[in-house]
Request: fold
Amino acid sequence: MMNSKEHWERIFKTRRTTEVSWYQATPKVSLDFIRDLQIAKDAAIIDVGGGDSRLVDHLLEAGFTNITVLDISETAINRAKLRLGPGAGLVNWITADVTEFVPGRKFDFWHDRAVFHFLTTKEQVNKYLGVANKALTASGKIVIGTFSETGPETCSGLPIKKYSESSLYEIIKKWFRKIKCIHTDHLTPSNTIQNFLFCSFKKVNT
Reply:
């Protein structure tokens, strides 16, 4: 498969942190959602695909104490650990493909910026949502940031799937109830604008 572990290891071994298109020094939209959802400082948080993201830095700085970062790329995770130094010991790091992830615990909050749009088949999407549903507590919340309908056709050499607010909710409503959606522009390091759809959801207990 093109979006295999080998692909992402190659990306992170050949590009610096500030060269990847999704780089953000400050993940403001994600932090705004976390604030608006009133995620507690001791809540169990998992950042999916957050290997070399700066979100973990900001969460630690803000006083969050129960953070897990999951990424398919061990190289990305190792770069984050090196950047954080002693702070890395305060984080639980998991190297795994999220669609194959078997949660060993429950989380209160699931965050995903820019993983979901790489799941281009119904099987991948259903596996992902099944994992997220299983991983979250009964009152768990999830934020997904994915390319909108006006976003790019590909990313990092891979095809992606774009979403509108309605098309995203249509496939997720079996597991989650919508709280809020926004569109936001991301300026890449190469000065390209990418439009993202960010949505928050609450777990549906059936």
Summary: The chain has a mean pLDDT of 91. The domain at 5-203 is CATH 3.40.50.150 (Rossmann fold). The radius of gyration is 16 Å. The chain has six helices and nine strands.
